TrEMBL record:
One of its GO terms (cellular component) is nucleus. Belongs to the UDP-glucose/GDP-mannose dehydrogenase family. InterPro entries: 6-PGluconate_DH-like_C_sf, NAD(P)-bd_dom_sf, UDP-Glc/GDP-Man, UDP-Glc/GDP-Man_DH_C, UDP-Glc/GDP-Man_DH_C_sf, UDP-Glc/GDP-Man_DH_dimer, UDP-Glc/GDP-Man_DH_N, UDPglc_DH_euk. This is UDP-glucose 6-dehydrogenase. It comes from Rhizophlyctis rosea. It comes from the Eukaryota. Pfam families: UDPG_MGDP_dh, UDPG_MGDP_dh_C, UDPG_MGDP_dh_N. The active site is at C273. It catalyses: UDP-alpha-D-glucose + 2 NAD(+) + H2O = UDP-alpha-D-glucuronate + 2 NADH + 3 H(+). GO terms for biological process: glycosaminoglycan biosynthetic process. Its EC number is 1.1.1.22. The lineage of its organism: Eukaryota, Fungi, Fungi incertae sedis, Chytridiomycota, Chytridiomycota incertae sedis.
């Protein structure tokens, strides 16, 4: 029986390897992590991450061919293939701070493999890493190889999006497997391809060289984020001219060369990947002495910051140039719908801005934990300000009671079907609603009596 170990039981390692176990009953999968609480949650009825369809997958195989454990060394020793799926956050200090990826976790997982392995392994880079990281991993592994043990390194970046992780994994657009183009590298590539071939059509399993595979991951995220920044840049022109950004996106998206996806204007992209990976690409470009290339990609992130600040300023301006002591209700704190994840969520930036303007804020999100909201906000603002000015509320109607304005920051479907007559009745007048996700029926809201402001539209 093939044995797979996955180091890192996070948003990627957990769902990815759970789906492998689900689709490959003849493969034994052990997902390990140093974080005991996370592993305990994976072994409980309440999984540590919310993803539609994930419970079914995990509960179907857990205890059969899927295991969660903190026994990292044991799982490494037993495995034939080892996924390294640890976090690679942006460095907060030292060389490259604010841009470069922090590879400390990748390195420590790699060193652990080198230290404890007693047989040859295929080591798979699943984390998103700068181009040529596999070379450093190989150097560490080879320097620590002993007793004729061989390590082959593959790059197998993950393209799942949060909120749709399970369907993305079940039916991926493509699976990339990069390897050194040596006979051993190609053999390792085939071994991993054989695992995916249990459910992914052969033509979607793409093999290529290691560096192309590593760079393709950063490139795909940069191109996706660039589309959002492009439509957001156009949303500013729409607001200034009377054009409607949804109509512009629709018109452009009908061109088959452009396509309709990822052209939804918004308050700005969030999530743990886009900003981190673009900054990583910017750093890589600078390290390669390509300043023009670095500046080009940096602009995608700058435009995203501009969009958040532009929307905040529009809110204050419409609320008669002050929100001090006004009641602002925030609908949605997650970085996108169908996830409880708040990493780099636009809501964090906006709520902090409202705090600085000394507004009273009530926040409603259907999935994000209260503690998470508190942690995100107090990372930037004093705890006293949080205590005094912020309430986390578990009911949208309660959250909007007595509000001067509602600000929609996450595109949760439930926000479309709330009873806005009831909400309007309980708000201060004039009652404002700011749609940062272009999901609400503006006409209906205006008929109720709301003052409605939508990104990329002048109503
Ligand atoms: N979140 C996504 O949607 C997504 C999608 C594609 C790729 N990625 C990439 O995948 C990687 C992982 O992302 P994530 O969101 O799953 O991160 P995460 O923070 O949710 O999970 C990483 C886990 O690795 C564990 N870990 C760190 N070092 C370890 C070690 N030495 N031994 C054992 N466990 C260790 C941490 O405790 C943590 O639980 C990142 O490089 C990210 O860029 C993320
Ligand atoms: O038209 C759009 C599409 C998305 N977003 C926002 O963009 C952010 C990112 O969304 P999405 O890409 O759907 O979620 P992620 O989970 O961050 O997934 C991205 O990042 C992952 C981590 O690298 C990759 O694996 C995925 O392919 C890539 O889509 C969110 O804030 C969305 O609300 C928009 O504003 N407009």
């Amino acid at each position: 029986m093939t044995k797979i170990c996955c180091i890192g039981a996070g948003y990627v390692g957990g769902p990815t390897c759970a789906v492998i176990a689900y689709k490959c009953p003849n493969v034994q999968v052990t997902i390990v992590d140093l974080n005991q609480a996370r592993i305990d949650a994976w072994n409980s009825g309440n999984l540590p991450i919310y993803e539609p369809g994930l419970d079914e997958v995990v509960f179907a195989c857990r205890g059969k061919n899927l295991f969660f454990s903190t026994e990292v060394d044991k799982a490494i020793v037993e495995a034939d293939l080892i996924f390294v799926s640890v976090n690679t956050p942006t460095k907060k200090s030292g060389i490259g701070a604010g841009f470069a990826a922090d590879l400390a976790y990748v390195e420590s997982a790699t060193r652990r493999i080198a230290q404890v392995a007693t047989s040859s392994k295929i080591v798979i880079e699943k984390s998103t890493v700068p181009c040529r990281t596999a070379e450093s991993m190989r150097t560490i592994l080879e320097a620590n190889s002993h007793d004729g043990i061989r390590f082959d390194i593959l790059s197998n970046p993950e393209f799942l999006a949060e909120g749709t992780a399970v369907p993305d994994l079940m039916k991926p657009d493509r699976v990339l497997i990069g390897s050194l183009q040596t006979p051993e590298g190609i053999k390792a590539q085939q071994a991993l391809a054989a695992v995916y071939a249990n459910w992914v059509p052969k033509e979607k399993i793409i093999t290529m060289n290691l560096w192309s595979s590593e760079l393709s991951k950063l490139a795909a995220n940069a191109l996706l984020a660039q589309r959002i920044s492009s439509i957001n840049a156009l949303s500013a022109i729409c607001e200034a001219t009377g054009a409607d950004v949804d109509e512009v996106a629709y018109a452009c998206g009908l061109d088959t060369r452009i396509g309709p996806k990822f052209l939804k204007a918004s308050v700005g992209f969030g999530g743990s990947c886009f900003q981190k990976d673009i900054l990583n690409l910017v750093y890589l470009s600078e390290s390669l002495h390509l300043p023009e290339v670095a500046a080009y990609w940096k602009q995608v992130v700058d435009m995203n910051e501009y969009q958040k600040s532009r929307f905040s300023q529009r809110i204050v301006k419409r609320l008669f140039n002050t929100i001090t002591n006004k009641n602002i209700t925030v609908f949605g704190f997650a970085f996108k719908k169908n996830t409880g994840d708040t990493r780099e969520s636009a809501a964090i930036t906006l709520v902090n801005y409202f705090l600085q303007e000394r507004a009273n804020i009530s926040i409603y999100d259907p999935k994000v934990d209260d503690d998470q909201i508190r942690a995100d906000i107090t990372e930037l603002a004093p705890v006293e300000a949080f205590e005094k000015q912020i309430k986390v509320v578990h009911d949208p109607y309660q959250a909007a009671k007595g509000a001067d304005a509602i600000v929609v920051l996450t595109e949760w479907d439930e926000f479309k079907t709330l009873n806005y007559e009831q909400i309007y009745a309980g708000m201060n007048k004039p009652a404002f609603i700011f749609d940062g996700r272009l999901i609400l029926d503006s006409k209906k809201l205006r008929d109720i009596g709301f003052q409605v402001e939508v990104i990329g539209k002048t109503l």
